[in-house]
Amino acid sequence: MKLKKMKSINTIVFNLLAVIIAVFFISNNSLSENFFSEAKQEFDEKNYEDSKFLFQRNIVFNPKDAESYLYLAKIYKNEENEKEEIKNLNTTLLLDPKNEEAMHLLINYELKKSNYSRVKELKENFSTICKNLCKKIENIEKLLADIEPKNGS
Q1: Which residues contact 1 (CB under 8 A, 6 or more apart)?
Q2: What is the pLDDT of residues 17-36, one digit of tens each?
Q3: Distance from the CA of 15 to the CA of which of 60, 69, 96, 130 falls in 20 to 30 A?
Q4: Nearest CA to 70 among 42, 34, 99?
């Protein structure tokens, strides 16, 4: 009889723990989603400081969220903080190598720096992944042609 009671108590405790763990993960995921949505809304309203804080907070809960890093890169670009902009673009591409927007922003950065060889390499990758921003390839090629002679001199 005692053995049955112990098994019953163990089953109840196990089920209770399973429910607590499930609720924790569900609420944690919802919280993370809420941070991203709120951060995106703040970004769209040009409240960059608030959105930066919320994107960073979202990354704490979801460190593999490439979109949060992309938006942070845009915020740092707006703040003219190139080091953080590039760090976040590279992180975005590390997590999501097919992220067209991050690739395009990185190409523009390298074009601004007249880094011809890097732009050429990125453009090749961009050509293979583009779906929505493919029209930008022509512009990149034109800009490449404009800076190519500068590297030859």
Answers
A1: none
A2: 665 665 555 544 555 568 99
A3: 60
A4: 99
